[in-house]
Amino acid sequence: MTTNPRTAAPAIRSAATERMRRHRERRQFGLRCVTLQVRDGEIEELIRRGLLQADMRNDVHEIREALYAHLDRTLSKMP
């Protein structure tokens, strides 16, 4: 009995393969991935500027979104 390759389960991607796929996808869109440390005072400033709700100060996703908004406001004016 032979196995039909069309019905065989797809190969599982390794973590390294998946990271490289995401890297290439970001590069295609002109994006880079960086790790950034944020001070408590900077989070407080995002709250003061209305970019982050005070009760979301510990939510990493919301902090990231607030930083994106800040960068869009300040850097989108660049030539």
Percent strand equals: under 5%
- Whole-number mean pLDDT: 88
Which regions contain 5 or more consecutive residues with pLDDT less than 50? none
Kindly provide the radius of gyration, computed on alpha-carbon positions and rounded to a whole number of angstroms. 20 Å
**SS class:** mainly alpha
Q: Which bin fits the share of residues in helices?
A: 40-55%
Main beta sheet strand tally, sense and closure: none
**Number of helical runs?**
3
Molecular shape: elongated
Spell out the helices and strands N to C.
HHH
Distance between the termini: 65 Å
Instruction: Count all strands and give the number.
Output: 0
Describe the structure.
With 79 residues, the chain is mostly helical. The chain has a domain at 37-79. The chain is built from 3 helices and no strands. The protein has helices at 15-28, 40-48, 60-75. The protein is elongated and about 60 Å long. The mean pLDDT is 88.
Map the helices and strands:
Blueprint: H1 15-28, H2 40-48, H3 60-75
Summary keywords:
single chain, elongated, 3 helices, mainly alpha, 79 residues
